[in-house]
Amino acid sequence: MLKPLLGSTGSERVLIFITARGEAYPREISRFFGMGTYPIRKQLEKLEVGGILVSQPKGRTLLYTFNPRYPFLKELKELLDKALSFYPEDEREKLIMNRRRPRRRGKIL
Amino acid sequence: MKSINKMTQAELAAYVQSHLREKGITVILSGGASVSIYTANKYVSADVDLIDVYSIERNKIKIAMEEIGFHEKNRYFVHPNTKHIVEFPPGPLSVGEESVTSIKEIKYSTGVLRVISPTDCIKDRLVAYYFWNDQQSLAQALLVAKHNRVNFTDIKRWSKASGNLKGYETFYEKYASKNRSRLR
User: Can you give the three-state secondary structure of A51-90, one letter per residue?
Assistant: First the structure.
């Protein structure tokens, strides 16, 4: 949807995912979209170098969020929110409605 | 001219900036190094963040930096004779959503250093405090406020515009409690 503007599907997926969830690990983005981790990592790195995202180490991986210092963040988020509203309903639901609250270890589902 | 291994962080930043200026590359000092400068090194940062104001082609910066002995390593520029690392975060020059217009010039024997003002330096630190509740950034903002003349009215306006008035109040209360004698 935003590929002509952002230059790649990978960039769009990364930004849409972080828009929906607020933060993301490379692996969870690649799993969600059924892509390899390498191209997702590359996009995340590119967006971090560009000042749009920041990362923080969490355990053995990096957690990416939007960079609060990015001067066009508000406008970018508005654009991405709008783009997300045009996503197919089932995909949008899957992006937004994921479990973020804790689950006790060993609990039988 | 001083040799690089004898330059302070500020002198090094002025030297690099002056060289880049000759090459038509405009960069402004921001980040932790500006905190060091405004707190007489009470806060020490090894990084020299030079904001690439007009998003110059990376290769142009690389060539200019190599001319003065730096080489690129993981997007940072290092020099064998200094522990300081130079980075070029992308522009535009901003604090939060607002552009930075007030630039301070400080003259050193190595060149003229162009740096964000103490007021904008505090805003830059407060972004991290407001967003991540980063207490180190709050402490740095307080140090800059203590050692410099700053525009609290503007910081309050800026904080309010970004929905962080409560965070500003915490910052100002801490500043006031530590600097009562200056406020009288």
Answer: CCEEEEEECCEEEEEECCCCCCHHHHHHHHHHHHHCCCHH
Q: What is the pLDDT of residues B108-151, one digit of tens each?
A: 999 999 999 999 999 999 999 999 999 999 999 999 999 999 99
Instruction: Output the tens digit of pLDDT for each of chain A's 109 residues.
Output: 888 888 888 999 999 999 999 999 999 999 999 999 999 999 999 999 999 999 999 888 899 999 999 999 999 999 999 999 998 888 888 888 776 666 677 766 5
Cα B48 from Cα B52, distance rounded (Å) = 12
Q: Among A49, A51, A71, whose Cβ lies nearest the Cβ of B97?
A: A71
Residues of B in contact with A51 (CB under 8 A): 89-90
* 0.90 surpassed by complex ipTM: no
Contact: B127, A51; criterion CB under 8 Å: no
Domain A3-93 class? mainly alpha
Inform me whether the C-beta atom of residue B128 falls under 8 Å from chain A C-beta atoms.
yes
B89 touches chain A (CB under 8 A): yes
pTM, full prediction: 0.85
Residue B174 contacts A where some CB pair is shorter than 8 Å: no
